[in-house]
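Q&A log
Question type: sequence-to-structure
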Amino acid sequence: MKKLSVKMISIILACIMVITLIPFTGSKVNATEELSTKITGAPKDLICKVHNTDNRQIDVDFTPDLECGIDKSCGIVIAASTDNKQTWQVVDSWSFSSGQADLKWNTYALCDSSYFKMDYEKTYYVKAYYVESDGKKGPDSNICGPFGPVEDESKIPGKVEEASKTPVKITGDDAGILKKGTTVTFERDFYKLTLTVKEIKGTDITFAVKLDENKPYDEYLNMSLGSLRGKNNKGESYGDFITNGEVTLDLAKMEVGCTSLTIPVTASVSIKYDRNEKKYKFEETFYCDVAPQAPGLIVTKADKKSVTLGKAYSNTVNCTDSGTTVYYRKKGSSAWKEKTFANGKTMKLTGLSAGTSYQIKAVNYVKSKDKSGSVKTVSSSESSEIIFRTAYKSAPKTKSAKTSKVKQKTKKFNGQWVKSGNKLKWQKPYSLKVTTYKLTINLKSRPSNAGGLVVKDPDGVVHILKGTKSKYTLSSEIKGYKKGKKVKFKVATFGNGDKVDNLTGVSPYKTITVIMK
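Response status: OK
Response body:
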């Protein structure tokens, strides 16, 4: 291998030092827009990039083209445009003049790297080309860019201050009743904040919360979210912290009616740009409606012309009015009637037909002021539909009543402690005479709009026989030895309920007499 001379090594080292330490100065060449007829090519594979430790410096690399008609009388130009390639300015140039006889060995002249500094607030494109000694230029290389603009860091605090005053843009606000997919966004120069209802399970509602930091402010500011805040059903403020981009609220505990949720956002200027790390605080407010829970309907009382359903919905927090609207109709009818009961009033439907089945459903409502001050009605979803029955006008008509399987026996009971007031009292062992039986009652017609038959035995014990039948049977016992004796039972139809203490819509009683045999 041919050894390099000391002079050649010195030239190479000098080139490397020039590349890495300062921009090329060399012998400047004058470039004109007049095209050369001598130079047929351009520097090849032009690559430009921002320096990794100085965002104002653009490093320029290329491959020389020694077969394009250039010689030692030529030079090279690095040009940049700051007006979207409309005009070009020389940012670096050097000539190839040297004592070397062969251009290929003129390492200094053909060094394939350069760099220059960008001005603040400008966008740059870069190209390279060869020139003759009289300034006539050859073809352009490929163009690199855009690069920049680079901001003047001394102006950043003022820019941030100005941007902080820009009003927020809200999309999807005042969203009404929340449902899956409901979305609201808050857009400022600094960020875009998005809340989306991700899931609703029962009374739990989960929001997906996303804070996107906008460029270039993401480089200057450190941004963070506070807790999602609202008011509970007592009108008290509360907050739920956002974890993993989600927050879950219990609608049953939230203030009903027209309400709002807020999220605080803090943007703190990095100490790199502001030693005081000035903080900007925003509170984004999301207006929505929280409906009351759907009513749970229970028939508390019924007679042949009316039915009572308990108390209407009542709420005084954040509401100008509240109540329940009841919808009802005869079973199978197409038209619904409605009646509204305000703020805790007893819900009683009157003017009904005796011995009739009715369908019933209801909604709770509140009236609340929205963000503009207008009163708005916010209603719950409909309750589950139930069937209730009014009482028959008269007692059931019986065709026959008889007993069977009548037996007399004595039941013995052990002594035990029993509570008497606030004291325990010892009860001695005792025995009880009873008569067991099976009672069969045949009606003249089936009570189609009744919940069943209620039977009172001679001891006053009430028995419930469910269903609409023409024949009912009861197996039980009564006190004493009654076999062969006449015993009286009372029977009636009932409309609603399944236990002795919640029976409603009971008809008049009829007394039937049977011989226990």
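Response note: The helical segments are 6-21, 156-164, 217-220.
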